[in-house]
From TrEMBL:
MF terms (GO), sorted A to Z: hydrolase activity
Protein name: Alpha/beta hydrolase-fold protein
PANTHER family given in the database record: ENTEROCHELIN ESTERASE-RELATED, FERRI-BACILLIBACTIN ESTERASE BESA
Gene3D superfamilies: alpha/beta hydrolase (3.40.50.1820), Tetratricopeptide repeat domain (1.25.40.10)
Listed PROSITE patterns: TPR
UniProt keywords, alphabetically: Hydrolase, TPR repeat
Organism superkingdom: Bacteria
Length: 383
């Protein structure tokens, strides 16, 4: 129990050590708007690293639960670090003014139109100029703000790459317009939708219709998830939705687990090294997350290559090793392993010798290389 408490304490420190506030002067709104900013714990230590950005409407009460979920996922390396921006909307009815719509057109109106422009034309450019951001943007909201974020989908090029809609109180015609827009998209896109079984009929029925229409649209580029949470209310379902949404969107980021191995890797007849390369390319291109190939993932693929006797793929593994860890012995070791398994101990010995002059990595070190060299030299002397 003490260990669990210590873990939660460390995560809590991680969450709030980089939390700060800022005020943005908005010409669109004619006033200053306060925001909460959560920077990753590694932000100062990695001056070249860029981070995805999660924008939160209703930041007054959504910031802390989102921040806690993100940091918990980061601790276990299931989620990437990201910058979190919470927009304050709790002063003198700001929330309802910000989400004002024309009931006839179903579009932002008056103060709502100004707030729409504030987010897209002022807040996002301000954050991207001031902080090191990747191109991947997420946005989330709850009830009326969850509905409001969908207006950015109405643009030909949506402003955000991922939308998290928690029990949205949908604007008129939205259950039809959103699927129409999703059907047109030609790049990978993420959409999360949730509702509580305790939500009122006025909220639930349009959401259910929206879910049905999105499924009918069936665009393969849309990564879509719908959650109906039992025994929850309009407010308690939020705490169920947040981790579900984040883990859906960043599923490709997670280290290889048993489910991915059994359902995606083990069923392959070939192309194991390509699978590993594509996994990390998708992280970079789609999610805007650039990290070296994890050694745990590398070893998973190496092991299945050996198990399937696909030794020629070790050459591609060597390329991946050299790209991700150019100073380490990983790439040369993989070539040595390839020649060893193909019955060429002399060439294997040379590669292991090259590896012994490079930096250790994981469970590979000079002692391992010297043992392999001796083993290959002994084999090469046999008839």
């Amino acid at each position: 129990m003490k260990k669990v408490y210590l873990l939660l304490t460390l995560i809590s420190i991680s969450v709030f050590s980089q939390k700060k506030f800022d005020n943005i002067k908005s010409e669109k709104l004619g006033e200053e708007r306060r925001i909460t900013i959560g920077l990753p714990a590694s932000y100062e230590a990695n001056p070249e690293k860029k981070y995805p950005v999660l924008y939160l409407l209703d930041g007054d009460y959504l910031f802390d639960p989102f921040s806690g979920a993100v940091n918990y996922g980061v601790y276990w390396d299931d989620l990437p670090e990201m910058i979190i921006i919470g927009v304050h909307q709790n002063k003198d009815g700001e929330r309802y003014d910000d989400t004002t719509i024309d009931q006839n057109t179903g579009l932002p109106f008056e103060k709502g139109a100004d707030f729409f422009e504030f987010i897209g034309a002022e807040l996002v450019p301000y954050i991207e100029k001031k902080y090191r951001t990747s191109p991947f943007r997420l946005i989330a909201g709850h009830d009326t703000t969850a509905s409001f974020i969908n207006f950015y989908l109405y643009k030909e090029q949506p402003l955000f790459n991922a939308y998290i809609c928690l029990s949205p109180e949908l604007a008129p015609k939205m259950e039809v317009r959103i699927p129409e827009q999703l059907a047109k998209l030609k790049t990978p896109f993420f959409y999360y939708l949730s509702v509580a079984d305790g939500d009122i009929k006025k909220i639930k029925e349009p959401i259910e219709k929206l879910d049905s229409n999105i499924k009918i649209a069936n665009n393969p580029l849309i990564n879509y998830k719908y959650d109906l949470f039992k025994n929850t209310t309009h407010y308690t379902e939020v705490l169920h939705s947040i981790p579900s949404a984040l883990y859906q969107i960043f599923e490709a980021y997670r280290p290889i687990n048993s489910d991915e191995y059994n359902n995606k890797i083990a069923i392959l007849e070939t192309g194991y090294a390509d699978y590993l390369e594509n996994k990390y390319n998708e992280m970079s291109k789609v999610l805007g997350v650039q990290i070296p190939v994890r050694m745990t993932d590398f070893k998973v693929i190496e092991n299945i290559i050996l198990k399937k006797n696909a030794y020629d793929e070790l050459g591609k593994m060597a390329e991946i090793g050299n790209v991700n860890y150019p100073k380490a012995m990983l790439g040369e070791y993989e070539l040595g392993l390839m020649y060893e398994k193909m019955g060429d101990p002399k060439r294997a010995s040379k590669k292991y010798q090259n590896a012994s002059q490079m930096e250790p990595i994981g469970d590979l070190n000079k002692d391992v290389m010297y043992e392999k060299i001796d083993e290959m030299n002994t084999l090469s002397k046999k008839p």
